[in-house]
Amino acid sequence: MDIQQHERLLRLLTDEFENKMATVTFTQWDTDSEDEEEETQFAGKLVGYKLTDNEFEEKDLLLLFADEEAESVEILMEIPGEEVDLATFENGRLAIFGTEAEVVLEK
């Protein structure tokens, strides 16, 4: 299922992932060289999120997790300000597409 509305993305985060354990994979591309990417993976519980407008007419999505050791992990990524292909959700796997990053949450 393609997610194209910000409100629907936030509702999905609440309904499917908030306060539940998931495997999180965060991939960020180097802005200078698109060939280089940095990937981080961990298991964690989504404990909060916030979507705000930024100065570039995009939106900042802040995801807050508690990992297996109860350590706090923050992911901040820019997503499109327009309601376009923001994410996909299928079989318990949510992929959120940012302008220079992608985060995947899997149940």
UniProtKB/TrEMBL annotation:
Taxonomy, superkingdom: Bacteria
- Tell me the protein's name: Uncharacterized protein
Its taxonomic placement starts with:
Bacteria, Bacillati, Bacillota, Bacilli, Bacillales
